[in-house]
Amino acid sequence: MAPIICIVSLRRSRGKTSLIEYLIKELKRSGMKVATIKHTSEPFDVEGKDTWRHAEAGALEVACVTPRELITIKRGDYSLEDGVQALHVEPDIILVEGFKRSDKPKILCADSVEEVEEALRSISNIVAVSGSVTEKTDQVKILKKKFPQVKFMRREEIVKFLRDLVVKDWLKKLPGLNCGHCKYGSCAEMARALIEGRASLDECVVISTSISRVAVDDRMIPLSRWPQIMLKEIILGFIRSLKLREIRLEKASKVTIEIDLKG
Helix, strand, or coil here: 155? Predict the structure, then answer.
């Protein structure tokens, strides 16, 4: 799971969207893949539109395809976690606009000291504050004195904060095999290149050419290419031995196996 950061505010027009837009551009410039989720209290699908009528009639899910977009619509009471699960990409970080009641880390956009104080009382897990309040030196001094545990950052500082967060997540994913197949020679050197912004996680041959993956409690176990191939053939051989007519492996793209070690 990629790191998730919510950009929140107590009131409208505090710069959440413009901050996210800026962060996307800057993180992408560093070679990072960003996905976003937007929370809104207003329905997206307008009553009376064809897609609304499809859903109203009882369709499980409605897909709307345009020359530039693919939009899926599902009816229900959904959470931030549902939004994350609905993503069809594997980003390096997920930026969320809204969901201030979630338990995820949050960056608050605020205009005044009073607004920051109110937000810190009512919103949990605020790790940083941004917005126009951080442009006022006298107010930042007051806030730092009152809330030394909170970071008060301008836009460019938030980029570095998020970039460091992504790099830490990347470092956990490096296999530690020191296979020498990348141009950095070892995982330690690649980690240094990641931190300095000279490398992308896709340059790790073991990760980018992944055929089989093994994880224990969501922690990935590093496998070099040969064990990956062996594991794939063993699993496929087992499935073929079952002779299930309804399963056609030649048309399948992925096999998922879960084992309950406590069962």
Answer: helix
